[in-house]
Amino acid sequence: MLEIKKNKELVQDFFNLLSSGSDKYLDYYTEESLIWTAGENALGGTRSKSEVVSFAKNVLDSFPQGISFNILNLVAENNYVAAEVEGNATHVSGKLYNNKYHFLFKINDNKIIELKEYMDTQLAVKVLLEE
To answer: Which of 36, 75, 83, 109 is most buried per CB count within 10 Å?
Structure first.
């Protein structure tokens, strides 16, 4: 039970760092971590930590006031944590970006070794890629 509690706290801390605009959230990954995002477009696919560094910076930089991530639910079992999250932000274009997400984290030794991100990909493409 202690491990499950620690994993949920890690996920909470991860989103707190993302919401604060700090790049310290990257410290939760290892060099072997894999981050997968839903979508058959420029946003979707599997990336390593090194690939996420520049990719995420470009996305996050398009929100000058940052993105506020609000965790609605956290469910944990063994070394997995599922998070239902809402993100709220204003894009540099002035468009509101209020997306709903589901994340699945696989955690070992206090590190995220795998992250799967599901979201409204149509909204993401519309706002982020301006398509």
So the answer is: 83
Q: What tens digit of pLDDT does each residue of 82-108 get?
A: 999 999 999 999 999 999 999 999 999
Whether pLDDT at 124 is above 90: no
Q: List the strands of the sheet with 111-119, edge to edge.
A: 45-48, 29-37, 111-119, 96-108, 80-90, 68-77
CA gyration radius for the chain?
14
Mapping DSSP to helix (H, G, I), strand (E, B) and coil, where does residue 43 land? Answer: coil
The helix/strand/coil state of 15 is: helix
Closest CA to 109 of 19, 24, 32, 35: 32
Show the domain range for 23. Answer: 2-128
| DSSP element (H, E) containing 37 | strand 29-37
Count: domains in the chain: 1
Give residue-wise pLDDT tens across range 61-80: 889 998 999 999 999 999 99
> pTM above 0.85?
yes
